[in-house]
Amino acid sequence: ALRRWRASRLARQQFREQNLQRTAGATGVLIFVSEAERHVEILVDRGIERHLDATARAAIVARLAEQVRQGRTLQGFVECIEACGELLSEHVPPTHARNELPNRLVILD
């Protein structure tokens, strides 16, 4: 339980350090995986929270966690990103404005 708590704490810390809470529309999303702890979490800013409810998020997290357990982390990320995109596309459509945040993978050792 302590290892998962630490992983969850690290996820929240990364949400802040990556400035995901600083977008104009409060649309930051962090898909966090700690393979060692087999801990998966999706953190969202308040502008996303109302469109990606806890039930939908839990289902996506469960699928990603299963993929991680099976050693299919990359495939899990791809499916997770696609699932989040599908749920959010009608509520938070992409714009032609520049991204406020980079769309990239951050790997911590």
From TrEMBL:
- Pfam families xref list: TPM_phosphatase (PF04536)
Question: Mind telling me which InterPro entries this protein's record contains?
Answer: TPM_dom (IPR007621)
Residue ranges of domain TPM in the record? 10-85
Task: Fetch the Gene3D superfamilies from UniProt.
Answer: 3.10.310.50
Q: Which domain of life is it from?
A: Bacteria
Q: What is this protein called?
A: Membrane protein
